[in-house]
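Continuing the batch. This is chain 6 of the set; chains 1 through 5 are on the previous pages. Same settings as before, nothing changed between runs. Recording input and output for traceability.
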Amino acid sequence: MGTVSETTRQRLVAQGFELNDDEINMFNYWLRIAPATCMLWVATSLVLGSPLMMAVLIPVALLCFALARHPFDAIYNYGLRYFVGGEKLPEYGAPRRFMCLMASVIVAAIAVSFAFDFFTIGYVLGSSMVAMLLLNVITGKCGPCTIYNRVVGPVYQKA
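Output for chain 6:
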């Protein structure tokens, strides 16, 4: 397998994953399925202006926080991994679980905004969320995980 860049390693460490080079090569892009699915869900909800569709995402994000696995990881864990010969995705560390908790709060705010016809607030919050998720999907950098690490301190440090 190819070598792992220090940037890629740091971005995964910032999310609470402690992986060796082989695991990083195996999981780096697959760990972006859940953020990509959420991004598409939020974007579709924004286009439709649907508070109900947005509200359905709240328990999904809360499950991710509570269970240390994202429900959308099942797409890979119980399907795609058998085609690519991979292992199950690792459990989420505290920074990524924090991200899911933050997402549930923001999604709830968007749903409430839409339900009470505060569409501007809903669209601003929703567009910001789509942008943050897109950043994670494209680069592997997670804004809420960075906040977590700045406030709480780094989860893992190099020896």
